[in-house]
Design goal:
The structure is a homodimer of 215-residue chains. Chain A is an alpha/beta fold and 215 residues long. The first copy, chain A, is built from ten helices and eleven strands. In chain A, the strands form two sheets. In chain A, strands 3-2-1-4-5-8-9-10 form an eight-stranded mixed β-sheet, sandwiched between helices. A two-stranded antiparallel sheet of chain A has the order 6-7. The longest helix of chain A has 14 residues. Chain A is globular, with a radius of gyration of 16 Å. At the A-B interface, strand 7, helix 9, helix 10 and strand 11 of A face strand 7, helix 9, helix 10 and strand 11 of B.
Amino acid sequence: MNIGILGTGIVGQTIGSALVNLGHNVRMASRTADNPSARAWTKVTGKEASHGTFAEAAEFGEILFNCTAGMGSLSALQFAKTANLNYKVLIDVANPLDYSRGTPPTLTVCNTDSLGEQIQRAHPLLNVVKTLNYLNCDVMVHPHRVAGSHDAFICGNNANAKATVTLILMEWFGWSSVIDLGDISASRGMEMVIPFWLSLRNKLGTTDFNFKIAK
Amino acid sequence: MNIGILGTGIVGQTIGSALVNLGHNVRMASRTADNPSARAWTKVTGKEASHGTFAEAAEFGEILFNCTAGMGSLSALQFAKTANLNYKVLIDVANPLDYSRGTPPTLTVCNTDSLGEQIQRAHPLLNVVKTLNYLNCDVMVHPHRVAGSHDAFICGNNANAKATVTLILMEWFGWSSVIDLGDISASRGMEMVIPFWLSLRNKLGTTDFNFKIAK
């Protein structure tokens, strides 16, 4: 498949490389057509990899990943242009983190709203599916880095889009459990779990962990 | 031991009854000396149970549980009086939930502060330990209601207080794993996990579940 990755950071690169390794064509995007990080990634990743502007990658992708820093996500999607987004699935793994006051980061939106909901409201015909956001990006695409059974979570307004994303998580990335938390408003909880995850990372000294729902 | 329970709702009653069943003397507290819920609980629970004002229960208890509704916790602790709180351990299981806009509730404080931190700041010589807050109260004191291994989390500024609470969780309530997330600022994450827990409850149709950290 042709896949667009919005964002050129470590999350975008890790997901992009995993997708190329699976045989997909991946276009990585930034605000400019020739972002140095994207260019370097394209060079080492091979001929299935390319890069361009947000609009070029959004047009290219049948499936899109939002791997931008959360504070820049709405802007990035505006640059991507509505016509390139409508009716597509956007897998939103971004977090609305604000590091301007140092660490730990705070959330720029939470409690009564979320980044996932903001993106969905800004692009009503885009099928936003929030998933994997609180995880380290290596765990996102290599869940077997974490021992034992553990769960991925998704939410979104469109059932078909969630079915597509569930298949991608299970068939492409190897997730064994995907729990559907409901409509896009569940993004609130999925983003607000970040401070808890950060406390656990500090305690455990690793990012190779995840939640398993015991019941 | 003599234990003070602040709050007369289902959480206070469930924890209070579990403590009486373990052989402890429990005094349940409200703003008034003869709260009807507290009186009814005392009557059915037996001679180890008693009730009184916040100040009376705080004076009585060697260990205190904050089981008030989060929006009333600071006020309840003010009524309990600093002299009755200083140097004691307060096990804070409360959540700062606001139902005034309906369900799901929002948090009255989050992101840059938390109820646990607010309580600790208001009572610097009280040893606040946040724990179990996001769980259903039956699971708090009967963790075996949830199958398999799963984790309790604690945080607080005083290591001795956390050691005491860890013993209480393991020896009295039967928790097999207690993860120390650090100082009281980790309350932020433990309270912000509530919306995620609520989404899971809606999905799973039960409150008998918990998080297990897979690593």
